[in-house]
Amino acid sequence: MLGYRIASVFMSGLLATAMVASTAAQAADAYPSRPITLVVPYSAGGPTDVVSRSLAAAMTRELGQSVIVENRVGAGGTVAAAYVARAQPDGYTILIHHNGMATAPALYKKLSYDPLKDFEYIGQVADVPMTLMGRKDLPASTLPELIRYVRQNRDKVSLANAGLGAVSQLCGLLFEESVQTRMTAVPYPGAGPALTALLGGQVDLLCDQTTATLPQIKAGRVKLFGVTTAQRIAALPQAPTLQEGGLKGFEVKVWHGIYAPKGTSPGITKRITEALQKGLRDPAVVAKLTELGAQIVPLDKQTPQGLQQWLKAESDKWQPLLRNLKVDAD
């Protein structure tokens, strides 16, 4: 009799497991049956938003349901990330985020989510190169001249950024570390005001992404000292890399990845990844990102594994630097 009861319990457990698996499979097969929300942590019209809307249009065509961009701004992108981490893991609320996913744990001591553990990975999207620029009348004209100028003038040199945790701040911190010289940091409430200050000669230097800086560089309104990628970029073929100028190993870029809440089924995440990959081959998306100076990542990075490995590597790169410099928001 006892053996019968044990067997009955065992069979009930197997049946329940099978039913759960069947339900998950049916949900994945039916996905998507309604619009999907792509949460963007930054304001409408900004670089990440522009990338997101171009991609959302292409993914809409692939998925057969609208991918709606929703901007949830605040606290360096952590408001949006926390919102998606708490969302239902059904594939209808997903997140696009940049380098802030790697740096947030070092900047916010009371972070309500773990970027490495509280999400399912979909894939990387595109990299946006950055440019190191100076005001038009800055005495230095080449990177070696700039390094000498910075070391001679030290804290008299002002280095603008777009606020705590912004990639422009990270780029500036890495530049200071590379030249072993501290400058006067001048934070602004966004990339636009920081660039305006540089154009007006109110600050000496700014490191910002090509999506914002290309027009100013091409018009000769600023001095360009180099691009921050490992290789020269097609949008500015004449511009040397900072590595070419003597800063060995210097590489900073704005990278974007897509995430879903932890627990989203493999079938659904696979469907979103496939839509992402096809969206990144869409001619309209390719043309728009190229126009912005962005570079679509290789196919092996447009995967959950590719994004997971990159996020871990970027976390290991930036978090120790930020903690050593005691840069935080709390």
UniProtKB/TrEMBL annotation:
Name of the molecule in the record: Tripartite tricarboxylate transporter substrate binding protein BugD
Keyword annotations: Signal
Signal peptide bounds: 1-27
Stored Pfam families: TctC
Gene3D superfamilies documented for this protein: Bordetella uptake gene, domain 1, Periplasmic binding protein-like II
Entry-linked PANTHER family: BLR1237 PROTEIN (PTHR42928:SF5), TRICARBOXYLATE-BINDING PROTEIN (PTHR42928)
Entry-linked InterPro entries: BUG (IPR005064), Bug_dom1 (IPR042100)
Family: Belongs to the UPF0065 (bug) family.
Membrane listed as a keyword: no
